[in-house]
Amino acid sequence: GLSNHDRWPRAWRSPEPRRVYDVVVVGGGGHGLATAYYLAKEHGLKNIAVLEKGWVGGGNTARNTTIVRSNYLWDESSQLYEKSMQLWEGLSQALNYNVMFSQRGVMNLAHNLQDVRDTQRRITANRYNGIDGEWLTPAQVKEIVPAINLDCRYPVLGASFQRRAGVARHDAVAWGYARAADRLGVDIIENCPVTGIRRENGEVCGVETGRGYIQAAKVAVVAAGHSSVIADMAGIRLPLESHPLQALVSEPLKPVMDTVVMSNAVHAYISQSDKGDLVIGAGIDQYVGYGQRGSFHLIESTLQAIVEMFPVFSRVRMNRQWGGIVDVSPDACPIISTTPVKGLYFNCGWGTGGFKATPGSGWVFAYTVANNAPHRLNAPFSLARFQTGHLIDEHGAAAVAH
Ligand SMILES: Cc1cc2nc3c(=O)[nH]c(=O)nc-3n(C[C@H](O)[C@H](O)[C@H](O)COP(=O)(O)OP(=O)(O)OC[C@H]3O[C@@H](n4cnc5c(N)ncnc54)[C@H](O)[C@@H]3O)c2cc1C
Ligand SMILES: CSCC(=O)[O-]
Predict the structure, then answer these.
(1) Ligand 1 close to Cβ of residue 219 (< 6 A)
(2) 348-375, pLDDT tens digit by residue?
(3) How many Å lie between the centroid of ligand 2 and the Cα of residue 175?
(4) How sure is the predictor about 397, in pLDDT bands with cuts at 50, 70 and 90?
(5) CA of 399 relative to ligand 2 center, distance in Å
(6) Do residues 245 and 292 make contact, with C-beta atoms less than 8 angstroms apart?
(7) Which residues pair with 342 in a beta bridge?
């Protein structure tokens, strides 16, 4: 008869967890699913399980504002995000699943002389790393985004523009990686919370879960805002804070903007989805918390900033608001690393900007888990950097300033 795949081409199996795996990936978000996919595809591992406490893509992966770009400042970051960008450019073909990656460009606005200098420095640094980027004058900004008000409270003095950047359909990314990983033999186990990490003689040997103990020689944790909670199960303290990050969408409108506009100064950014909704993002709520929501005043100030920049939207109705839990590190950079516990690996700290890194993150983390050593692209993002002091401060390029 028809297999599950033939009957429901989008679906993946939902097997009962086996008692032993070679690798267990904790967290069924985009990064975890990508890690499992590349472990199977690039490294030929067979006996892999993704353990997800809820449902595939229920965390930040399906709650974000879908912006994809690689125009970070430092060599280490821009090369990692650019690896991801190159994977995005072939991802629908690789997964045989349309992730709707739309390279409509991303504009980062400059509102004062320091912004102008920092932005132009970043564009030059990008070019040295072979990453596309250009400086737009205010007139060029207005030509690309006619609805923008250049003379608002924080006047627009120009912008960086990365034309290869854009947006993608976030849940399709999770579904695409889940289906492709499943077809390579990865067991995707939903409704299976990890509740403990078992160690013997300084080595990991398995995980306690809501569906029983599972033995594994390697445990790869990709749990975003809950990373510290899981690290605590292994006696590890991570230098992370988990903050709410909110977003909202408007009622559908006729096409009015076909690129992404971001402003660090006013902690607001906006794009228009294919359905016509305005997709609006904010800065983080300053308190730490695991509730997937945030405080109203933050949404209020974000919309004030959006209406300042786009007066034409002042009468548009907002349809939905939500929040995720972003794991923020001191230098606004990820931790993709081995740990002091043999066989235990963490990929976290992506803060407000890890969706764009989903393919690259999974690719380098799979390499790290398979080889028990980092790839050169993620070697700088070790947990040890917080002891050596070799931080890679990307607060400037992390868009909505964590
Ligand atoms: C509102 C918002 C807007 C954003 N906008 C952007 C953007 O435009 N561009 C961008 O690049 N980034 C953006 N981000 C950040 C981006 O969403 C995240 O960095 C990225 O999605 C993290 O991916 P992930 O797979 O690690 O996390 P998640 O998708 O959160 O996956 C982690 C998974 O781990 C699971 N888990 C947790 N604990 C356990 C446990 N004990 N056992 C089993 N499973 C567990 C969770 O249920 C979850 O499904 C945004 C985030 C938010 C919240
Ligand atoms: C949430 S901000 C998105 C980004 O970093 O481009």
Answers:
(1) no
(2) 999 999 999 999 999 999 999 999 999 9
(3) 21
(4) confident
(5) 5
(6) no
(7) 203
Burial class (CB in 10 A: 0-12, 13-18, 19+), 68: buried
Nearest CA residue ID for atom 13, ligand 1:
353
pLDDT in tens, 1-59: 555 445 555 589 999 999 999 999 999 999 999 999 999 999 999 999 999 999 999 99
What is residue 9's DSSP assignment? T
Token pair 């409108």 in the structure block, residue:
253
* Pairwise CA distance, residues 336 & 333, whole Å: 10
Question: 382: Cβ–Cβ under 8 A, 6 or more apart, which residues?
Answer: 335, 336, 337, 338, 374
State the CB neighbour count (10 A cutoff) for residue 146: 10
Question: Which atom of ligand 2 lies closest to the CA of 352?
Answer: 1
Helix (H, G, I), strand (E, B) or coil at 282: strand
Q: What sign for the dihedral angle of Cα 314, 279, 59, 353? A: negative
Residue 106, pLDDT > 60, answer: yes
Is residue 353 in contact with ligand 1, taking CB distance under 6 Å? yes
Q: Is 177 exposed, middle or buried, given 0-12, 13-18 or 19+ CB atoms closer than 10 A? A: buried
Contact (CB, 8 A) for 148 and 142 = yes
